[in-house]
């Protein structure tokens, strides 16, 4: 049991530490993480990394060669032109970095994200990393990208020098015997698998056998100048140092029309002589296999991994176990016999034991390293090991396997050093950084032959042909040649073979002789120093993270102790008084004396041990009871804490739930106390509305009742009835009253009373007869609830209020107050009508604090949101909404009174919210001023307040500046945000205005297209009431222009999302900004017209384009504006439009055109009837599609034409509203006008329209292609149903081409 001063640590939690990546496994090699479907790239990168010639030549490129400045370097790259920064050759840089990580970084797997980012495979085209690709195709593309990235460097021919070979095709004419030779370079040789059983047969079919060109396949001889029979052969002229062979396992099945995979057996040798396939002059034709790319799956999906030979012995190769071999008990004699006969001995049990022994040694080393003492006590090391591992030396299992702990340390003298007294142990200095420990030493003495049975010893130079590893994404394991031969066939078959010339054989070297993250011998791999430094820094960070994890594991018990601690308060029995069977707090002192008070316990502690501790503190004669602190402030005894028979812990007792102990020296006072959860008292307020006949003269005026929650409604009614009429208690079980009392009892009713309810019928909810068997807890009665009891015959509704007013319900509450200054606590009983200010005054005096009473305040002491808000000083105790226990906390801060608000202001000036106390009646602008003063903000700067959402985002803006905080819907505890900027007052809007300078079209001749507006923004915003009409805005604009007469010539436009005017604002005199749904900071534009304009609500303003003179002129010549007036209920008919257009065109011809062929053909120029002879065709232009729609006149129909014997008269005309589809005439739409009748769309189309239509079709084709690509991606990502051969039943879209983006380095000097 811990003292009170330690209780604060029980609430602390251990900071979580991010788990670092796993270190390398026993192979000492690193894999690559799969980014989604990058297994093909991972296999290729590992193959390149373990190609020594490629890796070392790549590392020879310095940072200056690649235009790259490492972070650790301060030297700048100089160029011939200082104004131009050189392009970084990103792909070689990231390839160098990834190779260095694979060789040096102490991680189980590395990430290739930076390399793929340098390829251009970013988030925009992430499908490249999540789509299955072909490794052969990837190999060609990666080589091309590396070549392009190394242009004009000293390793610019790296790919060509290592991988480029040459074949020659010889064609000999049988007629003239002339020979024609054509040479061709290759970077990989395609090998035909179909019809061949091994690699030699495929090469012979290609390079040994000749092909006769006869019949339809004759050869055109340049010497004979005719088609002749010929013989064609192919030979290898040049072999590269690294020979790549691509096995063509995927073929096209003509019957099914699908790609299939050939999984027939196909052998390939580990060593091959290619002399018979080459020209005679070629030497050095012996090659050895060093990498195999394996594919498993179907032609459309699958997985790639690689078998790679570690030529330089970088990794630690161990012979893998034969999992299929039957288990055999290997004795010393059989092991020696097999070893003498050359058989490699593999014992799975021995393998498992040695690995477990390694882990044990590593754990002990970690524990000793984490202890700061120079010589670590032997017992302390053993105790920490036992607390953090399962294999402790107290278990029989560890003793049988390793002996005692001291013997285990003595068996490894190269690692552990014991003192002479065997009391301390430390790690030898030379063993601190060693990776391979002396676990191969025998546990007991034996001959040398027996000591060689360890099958996990790394294989060195005695097995040159091995050192094969399987690189499967992040996994790296050891394999043998026999495992590779299994992939001659089956679904997981070889797909690419990588051979290297035997003349390239090199002496075995290692990256490191001691530890995989050291850099000894690093120069043999030519890794640049900047990369070595970078990886060393990463390894230091990883080592630090892993050390933190080890320390956390070692001291896990400390963390568990904190997690299992809980606080318990111990009270003296003298503080309590038994009243009516319950424990009431009646203490004179407010602060618990020692050894009472708060104590920190461990829930894992045994109850009997804890009882011994209590008896030692308080004496054996004391009795200990677990108590629950009620919401009313009283205590209720739950059970007695006593010695248990079994090993029960504190976490399984009532103490862990209720966490209060009362120590009684005398138990005589507890005889009338009812213990147990079922007898927990509920504090109820009782209002009597019974008849006053023979009431009890000794009835208490305090109508508070503490009723056990197990009492039924029927028992409660009987108890209250007997109490009121002073009937004996024996009547509770078997009432023996006179007949009048029995009759009165049947008229009594009991119910829950809610006097605050305005509805008279809902003030009293009577408990029905069926509910009388329920307990008061089950019926829903809780502390501070009010119940009423009345008589059906003598009761009136007004009596409830009178009875409640005459009832004195003053109660007492026991409050526990914690001092936030020093975490001390006090417990005191207060009357329910005591103010918080008085409670605070008593607490300050009891704690002995010398602070001003107005500089501190009380809060609820729990973890709810209400605990953040202080209590008002004028608030009474019974008005506090206690959640569970009656606990308060005294904290520093300004005291709050009746009309005060505490507001939390979040801003960019302070990390934590600003707490400010203000009167709720101050205005909003005054609050903003005070906040600026508190935060020391310039008063001239614009800021406004808005509410804060639960995720700290901006909510509703507060803009009623001249009203109080309550009017702005603020309350006590509101959270606000102070935001830079300004907002308009309530019911006001601000408008952004721009002036139209000019309108133009692109191209200029295409006047029928949507025009572009050149706008000039007006400084400042126009602030207007939202009830203002648009003519007010016109007047403000005219005033700004200093031209009051321009008011009627101003045209207003609405601005669209593209920043261009989209429609004209029609503003009848009755329309306001609010009715037009104008929002704050909406954008509008205006234009000064040469004439006055008044557009009605339904009027339309249409752009007319007129006259295409001849076929050579592809565009319209004239642009006019037509004001088409329409009334509210008038349909936009064709006749109305045609009439207005015709009059507008004729007026334009007369007034603006010098020559009018229409008017000149008339007999009389002044005859208005001749104007009607001008025949026009109208068409609506749609700029989004660049298409025209002819506006046809209405169609006349005869309703009787289908009736038998119809007269054919009475035809009607179908009227079409041109505002609706398909014409959809709107403001600023374009209508083309041409003279003539029955014109077609082709007559209206221009060259611009045809060009734009072609562009739209191209865009649609691109979208269709993209949709097809998306469907293909979904096929790969979704689990669609497949056929029996693994292919999808759904039709496949073309696979996205694999590509790598490379900068242009050809122009780099």
Descriptors:
single chain, 1309 residues, alpha+beta, eight-stranded mixed beta sheet, six-stranded mixed beta sheet, 24% strand, disordered N terminus, USP domain-containing protein, USP_CS, UBL_USP40, Papain-like_cys_pep_sf
What features would you describe in this structure?
Residues 1-23, 1192-1214, 1255-1309 are annotated as: Disordered. Residues 1268-1285 have a biased composition (Low complexity). Residues 30-502 form the USP domain. This is USP domain-containing protein. With 1309 residues, this protein is α+β, with helices and mostly antiparallel strands. 24% of the residues lie in helices and 24% in strands. The strands form 14 sheets. Strands 5, 10, 13, 14, 15, 19, 20 and 21 form an eight-stranded mixed sheet that branches. α3 packs across α15. The protein is flat. The two termini are 79 Å apart. The N terminus is likely disordered.
Topology:
Elements lengths: L30 E2 L6 H11 L2 H8 L30 H15 L4 E2 L2 H6 L16 H15 L8 H6 L1 E9 L5 E8 L2 E4 L6 H9 L3 E3 L5 E3 L4 E3 L1 E9 L3 E7 L1 E4 L4 E4 L9 E3 L12 E12 L4 E8 L22 H9 L7 H23 L5 E2 H11 L7 H7 L2 H6 L5 E3 L5 E4 L20 H4 L16 E5 L2 E5 L1 H5 L7 E9 L27 H26 L1 H8 L1 E8 L3 E4 L2 E4 L11 E6 L4 H12 L4 E7 L5 E6 L13 H5 L1 E5 L16 E9 L14 E5 L4 H12 L14 H9 E6 L10 E3 L18 E7 L6 H8 L6 E8 L5 E7 L4 H12 L8 E5 L26 E6 L7 E7 L7 E6 L4 H12 L7 E6 L5 E5 L16 E6 L7 E13 L11 E6 L4 E4 L4 H11 L9 E6 L5 E4 L17 E7 L11 E7 L11 E7 L9 H19 L4 H4 L15 E7 L4 E5 L4 E2 L14 E2 ...
Helix pairs in contact: 3-15
GO molecular function: cysteine-type deubiquitinase activity
Organism: Didymodactylos carnosus
Protein name: USP domain-containing protein
């Amino acid at each position: 049991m811990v003292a009170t001063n330690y209780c604060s640590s029980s609430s602390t939690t251990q900071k979580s530490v991010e788990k670092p990546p796993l270190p390398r496994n026993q192979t000492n090699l690193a894999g690559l993480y799969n980014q989604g479907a990058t297994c093909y790239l991972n296999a290729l990168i590992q193959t390149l990394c373990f190609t020594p010639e490629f890796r070392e030549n790549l590392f020879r490129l310095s940072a200056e060669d690649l235009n790259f400045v490492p972070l650790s370097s301060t030297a700048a790259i100089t160029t011939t032109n200082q104004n131009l920064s050189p392009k970084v050759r990103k792909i070689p840089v990231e390839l160098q970095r990834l190779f260095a990580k694979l060789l040096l970084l102490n991680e189980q797997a590395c990430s290739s994200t930076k390399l793929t980012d340098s390829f251009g495979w970013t988030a925009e085209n992430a499908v490249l990393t999540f789509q299955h690709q072909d490794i052969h195709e990837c190999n060609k593309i990666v080589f091309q990208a590396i070549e392009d990235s190394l242009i004009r460097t000293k390793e610019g021919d790296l790919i060509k020098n290592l991988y480029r070979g040459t074949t020659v095709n010889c064609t000999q004419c049988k007629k003239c015997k002339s020979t024609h030779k054509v040479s061709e370079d290759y970077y990989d040789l395609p090998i035909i698998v179909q019809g061949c059983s091994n690699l030699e047969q495929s090469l012979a079919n290609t390079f040994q056998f000749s092909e006769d060109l006869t019949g339809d396949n004759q050869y055109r001889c340049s010497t004979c100048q005719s088609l002749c029979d010929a013989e064609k052969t192919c030979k290898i002229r040049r072999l590269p140092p690294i020979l790549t062979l691509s096995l063509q396992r995927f073929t096209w099945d003509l019957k099914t029309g699908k790609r299939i995979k050939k999984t027939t057996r196909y052998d390939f040798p580990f060593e091959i002589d290619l002399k018979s396939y080459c020209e005679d002059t070629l030497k050095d034709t012996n090659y050895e296999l060093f990498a195999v790319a394996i594919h498993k799956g179907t032609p459309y999906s699958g997985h790639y991994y690689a078998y790679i030979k570690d030529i330089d012995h970088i990794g630690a190769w161990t012979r893998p176990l034969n999992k299929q071999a039957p288990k055999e008990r290997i004795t010393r004699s059989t092991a020696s016999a097999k070893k003498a006969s050359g058989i490699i001995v593999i014992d799975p049990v021995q393998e498992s034991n040695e690995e477990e022994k390694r882990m044990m040694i590593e754990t002990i080393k970690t524990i000793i390293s984490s202890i700061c003492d120079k010589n670590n006590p032997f017992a302390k090391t053993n105790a920490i090991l036992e607390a953090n591992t399962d294999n402790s030396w107290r278990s029989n299992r560890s003793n049988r396997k390793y002996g005692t702990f001291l013997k285990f340390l003595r068996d490894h003298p190269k690692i552990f050093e014991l003192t002479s007294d065997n009391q301390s142990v430390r790690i030898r200095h030379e063993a601190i950084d060693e990776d391979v420990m002396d676990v191969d030493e025998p546990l007991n003495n034996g001959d040398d032959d027996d000591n060689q049975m360890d099958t996990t010893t790394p294989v060195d130079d005695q097995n040159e042909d091995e050192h094969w590893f399987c690189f499967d994404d992040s996994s790296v394991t050891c394999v043998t040649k026999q495992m590779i031969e299994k992939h001659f066939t089956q679904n997981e078959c070889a797909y690419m073979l990588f051979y290297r010339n035997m003349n390239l054989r090199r002496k075995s070297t290692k990256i490191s002789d001691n530890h995989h993250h050291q850099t000894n011998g690093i120069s043999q791999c030519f890794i640049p120093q900047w990369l070595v430094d970078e990886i060393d820094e990463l390894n230091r960070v990883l080592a630090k993270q892993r050390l933190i994890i080890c320390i956390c594991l070692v001291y896990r018990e400390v963390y568990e102790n904190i997690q299992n601690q809980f606080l318990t308060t111990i009270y003296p029995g003298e503080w309590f008084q038994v009243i009516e069977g319950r424990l009431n707090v009646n203490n004179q002192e407010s602060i618990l004396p020692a050894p009472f008070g708060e104590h920190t316990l461990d829930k894992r502690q045994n109850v009997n041990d804890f009882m011994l501790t209590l008896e030692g503190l308080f004496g054996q004669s004391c009795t200990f009871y677990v108590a629950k602190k009620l919401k009313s402030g009283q205590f209720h005894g739950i059970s007695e804490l006593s010695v248990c028979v079994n090993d029960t812990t504190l976490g399984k007792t009532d103490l862990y739930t209720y966490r209060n102990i009362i120590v009684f020296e005398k138990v005589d006072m507890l005889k009338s106390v009812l213990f147990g959860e079922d007898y927990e008292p509920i504090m109820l307020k009782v209002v009597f509305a019974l008849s006053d006949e023979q009431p009890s003269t000794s009835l208490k005026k305090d109508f508070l009742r503490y009723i056990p929650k197990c009492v039924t409604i029927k028992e409660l009614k009987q108890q209250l009835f007997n109490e009121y009429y002073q009937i004996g208690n024996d009547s509770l079980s078997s009432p023996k009253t006179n007949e009048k009392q029995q009759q009165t009892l049947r008229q009594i009713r009991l119910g829950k009373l809610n006097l605050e309810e305005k509805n008279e019928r809902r003030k009293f909810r009577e408990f029905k007869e069926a509910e009388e068997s329920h307990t008061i807890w089950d019926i829903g009665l809780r502390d501070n609830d009010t119940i009423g009891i009345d008589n059906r015959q003598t009761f009136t509704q007004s009596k409830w209020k009178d009875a409640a007013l005459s009832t004195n319900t003053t109660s007492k509450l026991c409050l526990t107050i914690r001092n936030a200054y020093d975490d001390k606590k006090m417990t005191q009983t207060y009357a329910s009508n005591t103010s918080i200010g008085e409670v605070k005054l008593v607490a300050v005096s009891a704690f002995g604090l010398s602070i001003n009473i107005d500089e501190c305040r009380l809060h609820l002491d729990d973890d709810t949101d209400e605990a953040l808000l202080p209590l008002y000083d004028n608030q009474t105790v019974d008005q506090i909404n206690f959640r569970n226990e009656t606990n308060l906390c005294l904290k520093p801060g300004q005291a709050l009174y009746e009309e005060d608000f505490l507001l939390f202001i979040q801003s960019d000036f302070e990390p934590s919210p600003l707490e400010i106390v203000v009167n709720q009646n101050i205005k909003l602008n005054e609050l903003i001023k005070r906040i600026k003063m508190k935060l020391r903000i310039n008063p001239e700067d614009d800021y406004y307040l808005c509410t804060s959402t639960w995720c700290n985002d901006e909510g509703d803006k507060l803009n009623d500046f001249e009203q109080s905080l309550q009017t702005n819907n603020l309350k006590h505890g509101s959270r606000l945000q102070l935001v830079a900027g300004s907002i308009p007052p309530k019911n006001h809007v601000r408008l952004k205005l721009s002036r139209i300078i000019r309108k133009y079209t692109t191209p200029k001749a295409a006047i029928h297209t949507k025009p572009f507006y050149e706008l000039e923004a007006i400084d400042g915003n126009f602030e207007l009431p939202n009830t203002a009409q648009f003519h007010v805005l016109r007047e403000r604009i005219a005033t700004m222009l200093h031209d009051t007469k321009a008011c009627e010539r101003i045209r207003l436009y609405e601005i669209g999302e593209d920043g261009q005017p989209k429609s004209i604002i029609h503003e009848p005199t009755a329309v306001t900004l609010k009715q037009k749904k104008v929002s704050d900071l909406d954008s509008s534009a205006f234009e000064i017209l040469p004439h006055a304009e008044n557009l009605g609500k339904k009027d339309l303003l249409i752009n007319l384009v007129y006259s295409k003179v001849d076929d050579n002129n592809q565009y319209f010549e004239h642009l006019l504006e037509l004001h088409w007036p329409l009334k509210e209920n008038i349909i936009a008919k064709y006749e109305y439009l045609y009439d207005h257009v015709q009059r507008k065109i004729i007026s334009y011809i007369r007034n603006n055109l010098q020559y009018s062929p229409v008017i000149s053909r008339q007999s009389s120029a002044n005859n208005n009837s001749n104007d009607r002879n001008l025949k026009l065709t109208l068409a609506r232009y749609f700029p989004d599609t660049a298409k025209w729609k002819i506006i046809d006149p209405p169609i006349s129909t005869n309703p009787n034409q289908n009736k038998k014997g119809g007269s054919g008269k009475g035809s009607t005309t179908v009227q079409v509203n041109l505002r609706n589809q398909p014409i959809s005439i709107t403001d600023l739409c374009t209508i083309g006008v041409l003279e003539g009748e029955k014109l077609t769309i082709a007559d209206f189309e221009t060259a611009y329209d045809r060009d734009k239509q072609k562009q739209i079709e191209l865009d649609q084709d691109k979208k269709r292609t993209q949709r097809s690509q998306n469907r293909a991606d979904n096929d790969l990502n979704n689990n669609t149903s497949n056929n029996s051969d693994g292919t999808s039943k759904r039709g496949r879209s073309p696979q996205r081409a694999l590509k790598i983006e490379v900068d242009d380095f050809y122009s780099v000097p």
